[in-house]
Amino acid sequence: PILTVSKLVTADGKPAIFCIDYVAFSTIRNFNYSREDLTLPIFHFLQKFCDTDVVMDLTVVKPILTDTFLSDMLQIKEGTPIILMEEQAYNIDNQVVMFCEEYYAYNFFQQTVLRKKI
């Protein structure tokens, strides 16, 4: 079984990011959590109920077109290009503790890359 938590993040009152977090039940150490606990950032949940912290993410960034569901969530036209970030979160023991899907509305995402030769 997997705990699934979804959240909508707004910017200036407009939907900006729709996020779905997945945590395997095998990762959870304490099941005495409430719905309110799930409204906090997922990192609080991982610390308090899984006794673990995220120290690294492996993220795939890709453009996609919105379907009906994502269009409704982000309040944009169906077929609009957005950015999807698929993240695997690891703890200090290099164990995957969470998987995330983050959907960024097209006008709320900017990326800066520093490339350096070593």
Description:
The protein is mainly beta and 118 residues long. The protein has a single domain (2-108), classed as Chorismate lyase-like (Chorismate lyase, 3-Layer(aba) Sandwich). 14% of the residues lie in helices and 42% in strands. It has two helices and five strands. The chain has a five-stranded antiparallel beta sheet, with helices on one face. Strand 4 and strand 5 form a beta hairpin. The longest helix is centred in the middle third of the chain and has 9 residues, at 42-50. The termini are far apart.
Output the keywords:
42% strand; 5-stranded antiparallel sheet; Chorismate lyase; 118 residues; 2 helices; 14% helix; globular; 5 strands
Domain unit count: 1
Kindly state the percentage of residues in helix. 10-25%
The CATH level-2 architecture is identified as 3-Layer(aba) Sandwich
Q: How big a fraction of the residues is strand?
A: 35-45%
How many strands in all?
5
What overall form do the CA principal axes indicate?
globular
Mean pLDDT equals: 94
SSE-based structural type: mainly beta
Could you name the CATH class? Alpha Beta
Q: CATH superfamily, please?
A: Chorismate lyase-like
